[in-house]
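Hi everyone,

Forwarding the result from last night's run.
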Amino acid sequence: MSGNADELRGNVREAFRRGASFLKLCVTGGVVGAHDRLTDTRFTVDEIAVAVQEAAARGTYVTVHAHNNRGIRNAVEAGARCVEHGTDLDEATATLMATHDVALVPTFAVVEKLLHDPCGRRPRRVGPRPGDGCQGTDDRGARRRQGCRSADRAGFRSHRPGPGPPG
């Protein structure tokens, strides 16, 4: 955990000292967290920029876990190279990503596996919570598909299963 940009810089440097080859920041809430929501935004542009600066100093990059548009925009403006999830991606944010050549990895399979594990190993914390339209409701797949359509219309690279290499 980092309370400000200086603490984040120290944590990032420690991650690289321990052998990290790139950084992944969770800039929004997620699906399995017991106390966060997809609408939560965790880092400011300045804080993410610290991680981007430290990664660039080592010839590598930052990718982010992000579901909501505010978190995605903060990451793109700070220089992140990839967004994982992008559940609520809208066209304006997709266009911003395209302008900055930021990739999208929508991770459909991960969420579906968590929600519909045929072996019944669904984590107890995955499920509906107030205010989280993606978690445990019927519209979760539709929202991710809409985000991918926004990405396609914006004309940027998105990696998802299908023929050929990621674009």
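Residues 140-154 form the longest helix (15 residues).

Cheers,
N.
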